[in-house]
Amino acid sequence: MKNLKKWTALALAGIMALSVSACGSKAGRGTVETKSGSSKTESAAAASQGAGDLTAEESAEAKAEKEDENFSTGEVSGSTYKQDFFKIQLTRDTPWVFETEEELQAQNQAIADASDDSEVKNAVENGNLYVDMTVSNQETGETTMVRILKVGLGDMLASDSDLAETMKQSLIEDLNSTAGVSGGSGTVEDTTFLGKSVPSAYVKGVLNYGDNEFDVFERCVIVRKGTFVAVVIATALIDDTTADQLAAFTSL
To answer: Is 121 exposed, middle or buried (0-12, 13-18, 19+ CB in 10 A)?
Structure first.
């Protein structure tokens, strides 16, 4: 899970900055362009030679990569975000505002610029690590995000609880590296997502903003399909609404 942790840490960078500035943001609604992509590896190539020649892990990877042929990015139309590949959707009305395609592209570029790792840069350029959706509450500073990562075999076969533990560590590191935030700590606990109880990474800390201190909260869950992972992150200030944000997602 080394790559997942490295890439996720970059994908999460700036979350608290987004939350703090959300109340003053003038982001408009927009539509994210849908694009398709697929990946072929030695395991997938070996599958064409006969499943009997593959180990169980190679067979699982070949099956996952077959699913990748239907991969596409999410779309925002009006007040609803839909991610057909992962079969998830989220509807948010005013004062919630979805970021435009241009703003999402700027976030993706920031991920690449923040890293001196060529592997990460290539992942962003190839669409294997990117911001799929960001929506913010302009009154409260709450923010809900979806980041997409293309992962390796180890991450594909890891349990949801193990991946949540990896997310927790990345969230804590990101929280503690955010200017003005201290005391970041976290747990792995169940939360409601798509009407089911699933493991979530949950962290909290304290934001020093001028002469004031605010509690900050972040919670994320993971949706997996093929060799892709959707990291769904909710952030909140003062009042912890992260569980409610994630519970607002529904299945397509």
So the answer is: middle
Q: What is the dihedral of CA 102, 118, 156, 52, to 10 degrees?
A: 120
Q: What is the DSSP string of 133-185?
A: EEEEETTT--EEEEEEEE--HHHHHS-HHHHHHHHHHHHHHHHHHSTTEEEEE
* Rounded Cα–Cα distance for residues 78 and 24 (Å): 21
Smallest Cα–Cα separation from 175: which of 228, 127, 242? 242
Give tens-digit pLDDT for 162-203: 888 888 887 888 777 777 778 888 999 999 999 999 999 999
pTM over 0.90: no
Tokens of 151: 């992962």
- Domains: count for the chain: 1
pLDDT higher than threshold 70 for residue 41: no
The tokens describing 8, both together, are 């996720």
Residue 96 included in any domain: yes
Q: With contact defined as beta carbons under 8 Å apart, do 1 and 224 qualify?
A: no
Assess if residue 52 is contained within a domain: no
Of 108, 75, 63, the closest CA to residue 225 belongs to 63
- CA gap 174, 10 in Å, rounded: 9
Record the tokens describing residue 243, joined without a space. 């569980």
The CA distance from 184 to 175, in Å, is: 6
The CATH code of the domain that includes 200 is 3.40.1000.10
